[in-house]
Amino acid sequence: MNISNSNAVASLPLNQIAFSVVDLRATERWWREGLGFLPAGGNRLIFRGSLTERIVGLPGAATNCWCMVGRNDWCQLEMFQYEQPIARLMPQDFAPNAIGYTRCGIWVADFDLALTQLSKLGTEPLSPPFGVEGQRRVCVRNPDGVFVELMEADPLPDENRLGRQDCPAAIRSVTMSTSDFEYSRDFVTTALGMQEQKVTLHDDEHESLWGLAGAECKRRVFGGPTLLLEVVEYVSPVGQPRESDWRINDQGILNICFGDSVGKDGVDRMFRKSTAAGAKSNSAPQHNPLAGCFYTNDKLGFSYEFMWARPFLGHRIFGFVPQDKKHYPSSDNQLVEYEAVSQRAPDDVFTMLEEQARIIGWAGLGRTRHFIRDTERGTKQDVVSAWGVHTEQIIDCEAPKQLRYRIIKGSPFVNYIGEVLVKPEGGGSRVVWRSRFRSRIPGLGALLRYVMKRKIKALLDGLVSRNDCDS
Fold first, then answer.
1. Which among 70, 90, 211, 432 is placed 20 to 30 Å from 349, CA to CA?
2. pLDDT given at position 449
3. Which helix (H) or strand (E) holds 385?
4. Cβ atoms of 88 and 130 closer than 8 Å
């Protein structure tokens, strides 16, 4: 594929895909252990307060950001775990033709190894590989439900010889599913300055990869040189519209970003250019000595970021340089873990675990006031406890192996993620309960950890004794 750079009013290069995630640790592990992406640090203190509110357009916005890089230079995956407003889970019926940024494309150096590593993490392809050996593709879904296409043949072979040769994966494409193809095509060329590429990244045959065999689409590809934007309108089946209360930090791909790797001039130019083309920015460009950015939105609600970072220190601080994992700012700094062994088989133990109201009563954690069954965004329950009423939400349930949940409001915790694992052991089961969180009030982390350890111990000991007595 030959990418032309002859556009007289060239855009800044597309250099980032940003995600809103519910569990930074789980998502980062998936990209790193499954596909080989490299940690690149991040920020927690920067992304909160009035400046972040203005840029993002969310009142009270506070989030933690981790970054990862692949083979591409000046290109990153950016992952935000929002403390407030807390990210709503992706709808359970989210489909690849939903309006929004729905999938990304990743080249992998070893196709079979990538599938093996993802399988170890519990991720399997949505369909058998498409294409002959050397040209194979599959689609998987990451921990946040995003459709991720893995490509054995790099669609940008010239770029493959550049960048970090020790990294076995490269970010190659992001797909925008639009309700108005002509408008989106004109917007990305006129307002964003992107150049259309005379290439075919996908055709209708590829739709079977993500479960839409027989779909018919309009498609065009823009951008380069290292990352492509594919604009798609689903003619049949018609794309699912966004919900009326959609927010930019809902779980999934948050937006895409264009970056100037040297200074702010390109960002200021694109602010003037996009505004003149009708884009509505949340704020004017916000600059400091090392970096700057602004978010803008088209009339269909797609969000675009433009950013810059000063070479060396700016690139490092804002996540474009590989760094050890220890440079990730912690989203949680407290860990509680307890294990118990039951004589019951995993299926029986898991059935008891799903009866959350009874479990909470055994542990003395409080009492369930009521359940809310929400088929679109998972099961929720309100719990009355010593620290008031808090709301829990199941974020993943894989019977009889694991149950993951989070506390989404009304507690002394921030970024609380709970995980219950049930593992076969002999003729029975080993149950592991693990909770991670940060104290909402600084200095109380150790006390909360102590209290939670006692409660979880009581819960699992109660579960085991009841199971074993019943048997």
1. 90
2. 95
3. strand 378-385
4. no
Q: What pLDDT, on the 0 to 100 scale, is given for residue 466? A: 67
Residue pair 154/170 in contact (Cβ under 8 Å)? The answer is yes
What does 437-463 look like in DSSP terms, one character per residue?
EEESSTT-HHHHHHHHHHHHHHHHHHH
For 70-114, where are the E strands, in sequence order?
76-84, 100-108
CA terminus-to-terminus distance, the chain: 64
Buried b or exposed e, range 316-350, using 16+ CB within 10 angstroms: bbbbbbbbeeebbeebbebebebebebbbbbebbb
Q: Which residue has the tokens 């602004």?
A: 294
Taken in order 433, 398, 114, 316, is the CA torsion positive or negative? negative
**pLDDT tens, residue by residue, 6-62:** 333 457 999 999 999 999 999 999 999 999 999 999 999 899 999 999 999 999 999
Q: Which two tokens stand for residue 380?
A: 């929720």
Polymer length in residues for the chain: 471
Secondary structure of residue 235 in the 3-state scheme: strand
Residue-wise pLDDT for 127-149, tens only, equals: 999 999 999 999 999 999 999 99
